[in-house]
Model the fold of this input.
Amino acid sequence: MKLTEPQAEAAKQTLGADPIPEDHPVAVQLSQTFGEHSFYLDNNGLLVFEPTKEDPAKAGLFLIAAWTDEDKKELGGIQPQPTNIVLDLENPQAPEAPQPNGAA
Done:
């Protein structure tokens, strides 16, 4: 699934990463191979969010391709593996604005 801007910001806060930009040369190939998603990379491989079966208002993060080499230059498709990360799609937590004068 493709994340909206607020959902992607909430994912960034959780993951510490931005999705692969849609204008990146590899984005077209990833979409052709895995479908339309907001794609993330980490040390394990390629990840995407999918709505959960229990609650469609939440999306779980799944590893869908793993690195095939030690240099992390090539990915290979795998059976999707869930992670322990879940994103609330209806109420993504946007970054809180700083309070004036340091007020909390």
Summary: DSSP finds two helices and four strands in the chain. The beta strands are 40-41, 45-51, 58-67, 75-88. The chain has one domain: 5-90. The first strand starts at residue 40 and ends at 41.
